[in-house]
UniProtKB/TrEMBL annotation:
Protein name as it appears in the record: Amine oxidase domain-containing protein
Domain of life of the source: Bacteria
InterPro entries: FAD/NAD-bd_sf (IPR036188)
PANTHER family to which the protein is assigned, alphabetical: FAD/NAD(P)-BINDING OXIDOREDUCTASE FAMILY PROTEIN, FAD_NAD(P)-BINDING OXIDOREDUCTASE FAMILY PROTEIN
Species this protein is from: Marinospirillum celere
Length: 318
């Protein structure tokens, strides 16, 4: 009998959490991600000597299990509490959000800048992955797809039971502008969430623990509705529009031109309609799908989906 070996496509929090469970049980696991590093929505972008958190700005917990996990990560020194919201405790990774994904991946086998495009069935119930450069990876006994639902659907075209369910996950885009200023503005609150208009949230990164810099750094997120309307716009144009909206919303006098003013588009930023499942499994019991869209739209949902799938696989394939 071939020893179990699992490939996980996607190294966001769902994929990393699943891999943590599997490697903790001694199961050979390899992760693949098309980006230059792990993280997904925990990703940060470096510009000159500055970094910008482009996805999640902080972590919160609605379940006891995830709160315990956050406290464990805090004890490990990769996240710190940030009293930014009165509704519930919040944490941030330090010195940037991507530090958490780097921490989680440090003991894992991870292939970055590797875009998997096909799943090839092999004799003896084995699987091989094919990337965009036609490199073949494997063989593996089980496959986990931990990408956004739309990307997962493209990979599992030979599994109608999966594609039918994934079609129910409605994903939305999000534009994010980020900029650096020489002037130190003093907003009333480091996180501003308008009730209407094109802006969903504006975050002063310098206010986060461990993120103080001489230049003031901001990340401004657009609403899904506005992002959809501007989905094919140029990043330069979107950056200018969101910067102007930010000035208007915060009632600020325009400082001198930002030293950095750019925008990033998350094409599959969040799920409008979750699947209300922990994870998905193909009829052959060898191909699985996990992600935030299975349970919700938060990082907690991604962690729950990946962790639960990892726990189930630990029990069933050993």
């Amino acid at each position: 009998m071939t020893p179990a070996s699992i490939a996980i496509i996607g190294a966001g929090l769902a994929g990393l959490s699943c891999a943590q469970q599997l490697t903790g049980a001694g199961i050979k696991t390899c992760l693949f991600d098309k980006a230059r590093g792990p993280g997904g929505r925990l990703s940060s972008r470096r510009r000159s000597e500055l970094t910008f958190d482009l996805g999640a700005q902080y972590l919160t917990a609605s379940s006891t299990a995830f709160e315990q996990q956050l406290l464990e990560w805090q004890q490990q020194g990769c996240i710190l509490p940030w009293p930014v919201t009165s509704q519930q405790p919040a944490w941030v990774a330090t010195p940037r959000m991507s530090a958490l994904s780097r921490h989680l991946s440090q003991s894992l086998i991870l292939h970055t800048q590797t875009r998997i495009q096909r799943l090839l069935a092999q004799p003896e119930n084995l699987w091989v992955l094919v990337d965009e450069a036609n490199n073949h990876w494997g063989p593996f006994t089980h496959l986990v797809i931990a990408t956004p639902a739309t990307q997962a659907k493209a990979l599992v075209v030979d599994f109608p039971e999966l594609t039918a369910t994934l079609s129910d996950a409605e994903e939305e885009p999000k534009w994010v502008a980020y900029f650096a200023l020489t002037e130190q503005l003093t907003p009333e609150h480091p996180v501003y969430q308008p009730h209407e208009g094109p802006l969903q949230r504006a975050t002063l990164l310098n206010a986060k623990p461990g993120q103080a810099t001489n230049l003031q750094r901001w990340v401004v997120e657009a609403t899904p509705e506005w992002s959809q309307e501007q989905v094919n716009a140029s990043p330069e144009g979107v950056a200018e529009l969101l910067y102007k909206e930010w000035l208007k919303e915060l009632n600020l006098k325009a400082p001198e031109k930002p030293l950095i003013l750019e925008a990033h588009r998350w094409l599959y930023a969040q799920t409008q309609k979750p699947l209300e499942k922990d994870f998905l499994v193909a009829d052959n019991q060898q191909v699985f799908v996990c992600g935030d869209y299975c349970r919700g739209q938060s990082l907690e949902a991604a962690w729950q989906s990946g962790t639960q799938l990892g726990k189930v696989l630990r029990k069933t394939i050993q």
